[in-house]
Amino acid sequence: MRRTIAVLILIAGGFVGGYGYGRWYAKPQAAKSARKILYYVDAMHPWYKSDKPGIAPDCGMKLVPVYEGEQPGAAAAKSLPAGAVQVTPERQQLIGVEYGTVEYRDSAQTIRASARVTLDETRIAKVQPKLEGWISHVVVDFTGKYVSKGQPLLSIYSPEALATQQEYLLALRAQQIMHNNAMHEMGASTENLLTAARHRLELWDISDAQIETIRKTGEPLKDLTLYSPISGFVTERNAFPQQHITPDTMLYTVADLSTVWVIADVFEYEAANVHIGQSASMTLTYLPGRTFHGLVSYVLPQVDPVTRTLKVRIQLNNPGYALKPDMYGEVELHGTGRRMLTVPQTAVMNSGERQVVFIDRGNGYFEPRAVTIGQQMDGRTEILSGLATGERIVTSGNFLIDSESRMADDRNRSSAPQGAGMADDRNRSSAPQGAGHDQSHH
Fold first, then answer.
1. CA 36/CA 33 separation, integer angstroms
2. Separate counts of helices (H) and strands (E) for the chain
3. 130 near 249, Cβ under 8 Å?
4. Residues 6+ apart with CB under 8 A from 248
5. CA dihedral of residues 338, 340, 344, 350 (deg, nearest 10)
6. pLDDT for 259
7. What is the rounded CA–CA span in Å between residue 249 and residue 130?
8. Where are the alpha helices (DSSP H) in 22-158?
9. Sheet order of strands, 152-157 included
10. Between 363 and 257, the higher pLDDT residue
11. What is the rounded CA–CA span in Å between residue 337 and residue 71?
12. Residue 9: HSE in the Cβ half-sphere, 13 Å Cα cutoff
């Protein structure tokens, strides 16, 4: 009898418990499941809507439902990462928020830089005497004059050169006297003296024509002429009549301006795109419509510590001598094109340690996204990782959004339970002790 009563009591208790569970728990679940789904959205891109559940075509994320009575953007707000912040439309207008799009661009890798025309150092000649003496006559008497190769520059009186000419004439006469002499040994010695005297005259840059004049006339030249070694413009002159000169005296500097060097200042972040042999062009404001073409001939190995630029040397042909030393212009360095994912340069916030771009998540929410950047050119920055094409980003006003994001992140950290982490540490540290106490109780 007692057993029967106990069974009846258990059955009644189960019925009451089931009824209570259904009363208190089943109804809210049914009510929740009865909520009407309005549509489905992409949590990362709330502006994408769908009538059916599925996968977002742009980012591959599962679409989340938006229920009736739920505030717009609530689904996106639940999935926002740390640091995301909401900015009202009024405040966006106040701080000047502007938007752009992550998109692919076909970059021709054209680098623009300011540049200066200089002399081609391989086409400069210095004119110096190789003997001591005095200038008797100056032919080229001003700086800037154009001279041709072999044109007389000045004449020099040199006692040493005069004595060597006389030695040459004596050796020449001795050779003639000993020509029919049977003593061949003396003839050979005379020939050696003649060769040595002529060689000294040649070492002093006395031309073959002058030596031939000395031989034909039988008289030494009192004044010896120095000639221009190349064609070009006289850029320096230190030659005046009656001036005493030595082999250390620099008389003229002649520069050939048929080709010139152009030194371009390329920013160091663009230096990786510059190489020897790269085609380049130069324009000048005072010559509108005219372009000079050349090639990169050298890249200097050191960056200017003040301007943070790299010196790039370009060799240009100079028809008509239109390019003159110390002129300023603009250079374009042309590279091979390639397709790259880019954003406007103003969209990237570069703190030095990391680079951040703010993504528009819709309904006033902005997500800070860490990115890896590549090259920068034409006002845009290459994105190597962190963004996908088509994403809407902030291009202006992102500094103020960043400050609000940092403050929101700080508030979230400060409002988090301070004892949570400490409790976990205490649990981990006290686990062995608890185990020991349990064993002692047992």
1. 8
2. 9, 26
3. no
4. 128
5. -110
6. 96
7. 9
8. 27-33, 74-78, 89-95
9. 223-227, 152-157, 133-138, 244-245
10. 257
11. 47
12. 6
Work out whether the CA dihedral 376, 378, 379, 382 comes out positive or negative. negative
* Residue 176 pLDDT level (bands cut at 50, 70, 90): confident
pLDDT at 409 (0 to 100)? 64
Tokens matching residue 315: 């060799």
pLDDT for 323 equals 94
Is there a contact between 385 and 107 (Cβ–Cβ < 8 Å)? no
Which 3 state secondary structure label does DSSP give 357?
strand
Mean predicted confidence (pLDDT) in 199-212: 84
d(CA 191, CA 198): 11
d(CA 216, CA 220): 10
φ, ψ of residue 236 to 5 degrees: the values are: -140, 145
Tokens 């002159």 locate to 237
Q: Can you read off the two tokens belonging to residue 111? A: 């680098």
Helices 159-177 and 208-217: crossing angle in degrees, nearest 10, is: 60
Decide: helix, strand or coil at residue 25.
helix
Residue 391 in tokens: 């994403």
Please state the φ and ψ torsions of residue 114, each to the nearest 5 degrees: -75, 150
CA distance 312 to 282: 13
Q: What is the DSSP string of 180-248?
A: G-S-HHHHHHHHHHHHHHHHHHHHTT--HHHHHHHHHH-S--SEEEEE-SSSEEEEEE---TT-EE-TT
**pLDDT recorded at residue 411:** 62
Residue 80 confidence (pLDDT): 63
**pLDDT category of residue 184 using cuts at 50, 70 and 90:** low
Rounded CA Rg of the chain: 45
At 128 the pLDDT is 93
How many Å from the N-terminal Cα to the C-terminal Cα in the chain?
Answer: 40
Q: Which residue has the tokens 């890896």?
A: 372
Place of tokens 């002129």: 327
pTM: predicted TM-score of the whole model, two decimal places: 0.56
- Return the structure tokens found at 117: 């025309």
**How many Å apart are CA 323 and CA 222, to the nearest integer?**
42
pLDDT over threshold 50, residue 366: yes
Q: Which two tokens stand for residue 9?
A: 């009591």
Helices 184-203 and 159-177: crossing angle, nearest 10°?
150
Residue 419 CA from chain centroid, whole number: 50
Q: How confident is the model at residue 402 (pLDDT cuts 50, 70, 90)?
A: confident
Give the other-Cβ count within 10 Å of 394's Cβ. Answer: 25
Token output for 284 = 């000048």
Write down the pLDDT at residue 415.
57
Quick one: average pLDDT of 48-52? 78
Angle subtended by helix axes 208-217 and 184-203, to nearest 10: 130
